[in-house]
Amino acid sequence: MFSLRHQAHHPQREFESSGFQEPFERPERAEFIRSALAADGSFEFVAPEDWGVAPIEAVHDPGLVHFLEHAWEEYQQAHGPTHDVIPDVFAMPQLREGMGAAREPSDVSARLGWWCFETTTPLTHGTYDAARSSVDVALTAADLVANGERFAYGLCRPPGHHAARSVYGGYCFFNNAAVVADHLARTLDAKVTVLDVDYHHGNGTQQIFYSRGDVQFVSLHGDTERAYPYLTGHVDERGTGDGAGTTSNFPLAAHTDDDTFLDHLAAACDDVDSFDPDLVVVSLGLDTYFDDPICDLDLTADGFEACGRMVAQMGFPTVVLQEGGYATAELGENARRWLTGLAPTR
Ligand code: OKP
Ligand code: ZN
């Protein structure tokens, strides 16, 4: 599953480490993956369908969806012309401590800091369309699995797992995996697991399902004591209410290698087996790679293939959705290896 519409999201730079950097999350990422899978010859490509906004608004605040649709244009009216739109003031709840909750501001600059939590996720002219296409890719992949395919892969760009119910950031606008998991759980009356193997904790996915018993969230990630997104991902976050026990976190030390990662993945798979879902959604980040420019784990392409194999061995119908991975030149081969481990014969 792949859509050229991802190219409409193409930030010029991101404000990171107190300076403007060349964006790490760039259109070539998806192109490298697509061409590696096409060159392999054994992957069947399917065009995505249009799923509309309803499945998105089932997990996201409709106000966030509306904001993302219009914010770039509104910002141009107020402050343009600019290529990228980045917040410069954040609506920290502490500012109104003791005074009651804030209301959404009306000024577009203020609303950027209301709906976005950080500075590395610019809006561009085509961001909304690209983010919508990423959800369409994810839902089309999920639909194949819902209709009997054992595996499908959605080449999602932009990624999704940092986007929470009412806030975007971390290169993510709509939470593709959460939209898919919620859609499958509701439409099939099914139990669904989101298994997140991206280097970064899937804070958005965890938040969206934290109190739900029908969707399990299991994540392996660089320990958020040292790694983005910092505030979530600890082992004592286990879910609440109906969701008590349906969240599991596996924080990893720097330079975790293939064998140690696979040991933790085996423990994560035990939690999935205990939940016994009808379907699994994998948030596939390949930024655990040893040569990733913004992360510190030490996985190799052989390790990725072993991970795919281990996930397949659980035996559940599985939708794999692309999240991060910034070693752009090796990204296509790494995705191909992970998916080859998952489904050796296609
Ligand atoms: C997205 B995904 C830290 C800046 C962090 C955002 C990273 C988002 C990663 N200095 N910028 O999980 O791969
Ligand atoms: Zn990541």
From TrEMBL:
Domain Histone deacetylase positions: 25-339
Classification via Gene3D superfamilies: Histone deacetylase domain
GO molecular function, a single term: hydrolase activity
Cofactor: Zn(2+)
Any single GO BP term: epigenetic regulation of gene expression
Pfam families noted in UniProt: Hist_deacetyl (PF00850)
Region described as Disordered: 1-22
Keywords: Hydrolase, Metal-binding, Zinc
Biased composition (Basic residues): 1-10
Recorded family membership: Belongs to the histone deacetylase family.
Record-given protein name: Acetoin utilization deacetylase AcuC-like enzyme
Gene source species: Ilumatobacter fluminis
